[in-house]
Amino acid sequence: MIIVGAGPVGLLTVLRLGQAGISTLVLESHHTLLPTTRAVVYMPVVIPVLRELGILDVVLKNAFLNREGVTWRDLDGNALAHLPLSSSSPGEFRGVLLFGQSRMNALILEEMKKYPTVEVRFGLRCGH
User: Fold this and answer.
1) How far, in Å, are 34, 75, 85, 101, 111 from residue 7 at the CA level?
2) Tens digit of pLDDT per residue, the chain (128 long)?
């Protein structure tokens, strides 16, 4: 199987394919993982996916868990609105993980080394 792009979605897909023993090649046009951050928040819906892939613990060690919520403020620092993220149900995960995309990509790439059926090749473009 061939996956185009070594962003978090492509790498998470390849990680799962590697865990299933499926030979997979990732083609990334850049010569390395991009150090830029285009995404920083992972919503609660992602937690079961990270748990199933076996990387939730390492992500939690590296990410900031925001359970307080998000507050929008005016220029003077006065609260304008608040979106709570907490839950009163015991054991229910409520919050968001703050973790830069470049750091997430590096973590996934490191985890992929456990699976010999997957390979990432940098500096290769598809199309044209």
Assistant:
1) 9, 35, 27, 8, 14
2) 999 988 888 899 999 999 999 999 999 999 988 887 677 788 888 888 899 999 999 999 999 888 887 889 999 999 999 888 766 666 666 778 888 888 899 999 999 999 999 999 999 887 76
Instruction: Give the global pTM.
Output: 0.74
CATH architecture for the domain at 2-122: 3-Layer(bba) Sandwich (3.50)
Q: Which residue in this structure is represented by tokens 């990432």?
A: 120
What residue ranges do the domains of the chain occupy? 2-122
Helix-, strand-, coil-residue percentages of the chain, each rounded to 5: 30, 25, 45
Euclidean distance between CA atoms 23 and 26, whole angstroms: 10
What three-state secondary structure class fits 52? helix
